[in-house]
Amino acid sequence: xxxxxGYVLLVEDDDAIRQLVSSLLRExxxxxxxxxxxxxxxxxxxxxxxxxxxxxxxxGMPAMDGESLLDMIRQQYGWxxxxxxxxAMHPAMLESAAQRMKARAMSKPFDLDDLVAVVHEMLxxxxxx
Length: 129
Known about the structure:
The chain is α/β, with parallel strands linked by helices. The protein has one domain (3-123): Rossmann fold (3-Layer(aba) Sandwich). The protein has six helices and five strands, in the order αβαβαβαβαβα. The chain has helices at residues 3-6, 15-27, 38-47, 66-77, 91-101, 112-123, and strands spanning 7-11, 31-35, 54-57, 83-87, 104-107. A five-stranded parallel β-sheet has the order 2-1-3-4-5, with helices on both faces. Helix 5 (91-101) links the parallel strand 4 (83-87) and strand 5 (104-107). The relative contact order is 0.19.
């Protein structure tokens, strides 16, 4: 399976959310690389064999926010994978961030079925339930 067909980079500092989303996506047949923060994500990116098909990230993380992380990934690695933001920030601020980042956004809390559908849609996959 080519990386872009099912490899997702998930960057989320909340352990429970990261584990839930990762498990859910794996159940639908996707490969997921988890990172608990920006530093861990960057370490993964430096050794990755190619860009993911999708980057899912939180905006509010310690040390480096999701927007800064995405800028760094795009500049250092040239990855232009689609991006899905998962965030609890105010909807107007979230929409503004999504526009700046050329990303799609979902507010926390989110519906799990909706998340799976959006992820598969963004990947161009037909595996969504």
